[in-house]
Specification:
The protein has 468 residues and is of the alpha+beta class. Helices cover 57% and strands 13% of the residues.
Amino acid sequence: MIARILTALLLLCPAPLVAQEGQPLTLDEVLRSSATHAPQIVEALTRVRQAEGRALSAEGAFDTVFDVDAQSRVAGYYDGTYAEGRATRPLTGNGGQVYGGYRVSRGNFPIYEDKAYTDRLGELKIGGLFALLRDRAIDERRGRTAIAARDIDVARLDREMVAIGVQARAIAAYQNWSAAGLRLKAYRSLLDLAETRRGGIARQVQLGARPSILLTETDQNIVRRRALVVRSEQEFATAANALSFFYRDESGGRVTPGAERLPTALAEFRPARAPGAIDRPDLSSIDARLAQSELRLALAENDLRPRLDLRGELSYDLGRSGVGGVSRDGEEAIVGVRFSVPLERRQAKGRIAEARAEIDGLRTRQRLIRDQIAVEVQGIVIAVEGAERTAVLAAEEADLADRMAAAERRRFELGASDFFLLNLREEAATDARVRLLDARARAALAGVDLAGATANRQALGLADGALP
């Protein structure tokens, strides 16, 4: 009674939705659903969006900046008014920048503000600064942008690794649900057979052709088989509840598949074993992190270099000469250099040592993961081969057990066998079928482990476009 109540509670739980009736539930349907709606994958997708936001923010260092500066002397001896607008654009291939602007002034300025004078229609100006040593190959802006781009790669690879784990668990949940349902069908068939036979035995007992103890033995056998059915119902309800975590509707709500959607046989899962190197996202993620560390090393080495910047500026005053005189008329070209060198450079040297240590650690971890993957895959291959051989033997055993049970039923109907022996044959046949289901399920689960360990995206339903 308690087991039936637990089964009913699991099947009638209000959280998951009831699966729609129709065709048998397929593995592809479950994999499409989990790849689109599984919470772990959706959460990993948000981390990708966060990384994309950080990358966009880093690219903001190259935004064009427009600024205006204006001032007017409203009291005092001088009455000068000055206004300037400038647009500055950082260079993407160099640590320098280019700029252009316009300024205009009116009135008189003190000698220490002589640069404020322009001709009547103002002054146009363009110029640029170019790094020749430090910041030439890489600078803080380009380094941060490149590191942020690798952050996107890391987040996408992490999402793919999460998806591989989710899909592998989804396949395992589907296989467990299918095996539990088919196991329940086998025990129900065994129970139906006993209940059907009871009517014939009861009539024979009434006619005196069979002893009454045979009917008692039949009832005992029915109770035992009914207990197997109740236990299997509970296991099936538990497996359906577990599958609902991966099988979801269009809105992402959990769906509990019912017995009407059971497949007729356990789906085989034998992923192809691709030759060559294994393309695992966790290995690729380390490659991306290595690239980030190498960028940090390049930034630190850049800080060790002396700074040598070349700057140039061309200006042209417009209109008639202003208060500042004819010295502002026409065009003016300026070229200059700036040189500086840090003397001790301990900060840069410390960052170089840190970056090199990080690179060494990541390369060591990369070798460790490669070795772990090789050992893991080889162990799973051994398990797959063993599970497949066991399934073949279980199929042979089930076939032989079915033939023995069928022969024993014919002998019982002819009166050449007894009920005890017939019951043993039938239960042995059912147990053999259940062992066959379990063996095939173990072989499929071993295949799932192999697909996950080798990142077989096709087998896991993660082909191009499968992920949101």
